[in-house]
Amino acid sequence: MGQLATSYRARSTVSDDGNTENTFSDSVMRLLDRIDCRPAETDAEREAIFRLRYQAYVRDGSIVPGPSATFSDPYDEKGNVFLLGAYLDGRLASSIRLHIASREHPICPSLDVFPDILQPELDAGKILVDPTRFATDPELARVERGLPYVTTRLCGMAARYFKADHLLAAVRAEHQAFYRRIFNHQQICEARSYPLLAKPITLMTIHYPTASEQVHRRFPFFQSTFVERRALFERAPAKPAAAQTVAAAADAL
Fold this sequence. Notes:
Number of helices: 10
Structural class: alpha+beta
Largest sheet: 8 strands, mixed
Strand content: 15-25%
Number of strands: 8
CATH class: Alpha Beta
């Protein structure tokens, strides 16, 4: 695929003469005008996301504090991963990690925990978007109530761009209401232990092609343009550091 710009200025795709009565949607749309979203391309961008992730997960008790003050795992290095950051007025405000799983590229964190549920879907040729490692800056989140919505908007954008069948949500029990409220996610199994996390995780999902119309009608700010989606996803996912080193050595020959 051709290389395109790897960031975009998120903009509302709803006209000003839309439903102005929905004040929350209006506030999120205004927030989108101040947000830049982009994949983490550099070591510095990746480290900033890992630090933000660490702070968020320590704060809510998902992990115990460690000397590195960063939180990453081998899934951050897989070939079908997108590490995305949302920058509010230039400051990293939130991040989320997306794996695009298919029969040809099945690796995703939720598959290891819920193989009995997800492997048959992959074997049948279904495409899954597996969002994990959602983290927000606590100071900014207190001020900008729409920040979680801006971040999860990226999940729907990926599901539409990759024509996904299922948009997953592997979340703790206390976070289920958020995903049910936004996307109408449904829990499909009981909580299970999740690698590196102290608290169990449940699996929720929606059939995105069916659910997207209702989501966009209730929350117009989830709409996006093809240009926005292409800017984020029409590129090879970031190569692991080791692969980048090999590629650089090959280019030098």
